[in-house]
Amino acid sequence: MIINQVEKKGELKLWNIVRFQILMYCYFNDVIIPESDLECLTLLALNGESELTSFCNAACNEEQKDRDSDLKFEKEIFKSPQCVRNSINRIESKNLIVKTGKGRKKIYVNPEMKLQTSGNIFVNVKLLRKEYESQES
C-alpha cells in the first residue's frame, strides 16, 4: 500500500496553540463554533476557572466595562459584558464550558477537552485516511 505522507512542523505562540487545540476538539466532535466564540473560549482556557462577571469584563471593550477584571489575560473580543455573556451561553449550550455556583458564578473550559495551556506544549497529531480496495468475488 502506498501512503502519501504530509509532515507539518511549526512553532506557535501560546494563544494560537491553545486555539488550535480547541479547533481540533471542535472538528473531531462536530461542534461548529463562530470565530468570536472561539476567541472567547481561548481567553477562558488561558485564564482557567474565572468568576463570570470578571471574565465578561476581561473580554469586552474598555469603555463598556462595568468593573475591573482581575484576570491575567484580557482581550477585547466583544463590545459589552452582555455580549460576552451571550457568547458564554452559546458555548455552554455546546458543552464546551462548565458553569458552577450561584450568585458569583464560576466558569471554566470543560475538562473533557483536555487542553494544555501552560508550560511547553507539544501537540502531536497523526491522522490517516485509508482508501479501501473493493473486494471482488
Write the layout of secondary structure elements.
Elements: H1 14-28, H2 35-47, E1 50-51, H3 52-58, H4 81-93, E2 97-100, E3 106-109
Antiparallel strand pairs: 1-3, 2-3
Helix segment tally: 4
Outline: elongated
> What is the percent of helical residues?
25-40%
Strand order of the largest sheet: 1-3-2
Low-confidence stretches: none
Binned strand content: 5-15%
Query: Largest sheet, if any?
Result: 3 strands, antiparallel
Can you describe this structure?
With 137 residues, this protein is mostly helical. The protein has helices spanning 14-28, 35-47, 52-58, 81-93, and strands at residues 50-51, 97-100, 106-109. Strands 1-3-2 form a three-stranded antiparallel β-sheet. Helix 3 (52-58) crosses helix 4.
Features:
single chain, 137 residues, mainly alpha, three-stranded antiparallel sheet, elongated
Task: Give a quick summary of the entry.
The chain has 137 residues and is mainly α.
